[in-house]
Amino acid sequence: MAALNEEQVMLRDMAREWADNESPVTAFRKLRDAGSATGFDPEAWSAIGAMGWAGIVIPEEFGGSAFGYLSLGLVVEQLGRNLAATPLGATAVAASAIVMGSSDKAKKDWLPRLASGEAIATLAIDDGSSHDMKFTANVDGGKLSGTKPFVAEGDGADAFVVAAADGLYLVAKGEGVTVSTRHMADSRSHAAVTFKHAPAERLGDTALTQAIVDRAAAVTAAEMLGMAESAFRQTLDYLKQRVQFGQVLSSFQALQHRMAKMLTELELMRSAVEGALEAIDAGRSDVDQAVSLGKAVANDTLRLVSREMVQLHGGVGMTDEFDAGLYLKRAAVLETTWGTASWHRDRFGRLNGY
Q: Hey, CA dihedral for 178, 169, 186, 41, is it positive or negative?
């Protein structure tokens, strides 16, 4: 578990309070039922921008706070507890691509707007449903062409950080960009984005692509940590009040064992996820290994907890009246985003010479 400084504790607690008061699961339900075109609440996003969260990993000279990825992860975790639908994670990592990139023009034009929440950016990386890190999009004469079929937060994005065969590029929404909404299990914003001779600003080579993908995986794991913690607590609360055969369910030893196993796995998950975020902030040489460990553990643990949440709620866990199904559906999407558990275990092995 990471040792948080005073500012990080305050940031975490502030994010938790805001999420509980302003963005509970009922807010996500309302957004889902309304069929929002962008997949998020503009007022909530404006509030997030005003609180400075959109600029957590952006340097101060461009309007950010440069608090780092552990701090970003703390906020994303708290939002994940309530399934808050915001483009924070995608925008922050896309902003990092610009910060780490070589284009001064992109930094000047986009970073202040991203830090304030005025603009939204996202990542258009994978060419298909499998995360194989092979890209076919190409750039000719400063114009990018290619298709990215699964772009999270693509519906409301103003800019796309796009992976091409030779590296990363920044493409603004508009000329040569076609966005088509996709409907997926988690009822969040997902889009297929087609680029046809779209003006593109080069950010960096394939090494930058890998660095940004690692950051995206770590932030996703932080959201999964928040989801798993919340799913566990909700399940525990339910077992403590549900009476069966004249006894509360929490008194049955078999169920106690299942809850104990989940709690143990959650502690390991927190250590692995926060370790990946700390590795990024420290600029360690083993960031890739730390991220693969964190995402693999996050995938396995959230899969366990979300399924146990449904099972331990019994028949009502399968109904939309209860929140268990919402966590299960979001978990299913995030497990495959930026690499499955098996993909990351294989990568971890290869990085260690196996």
A: negative
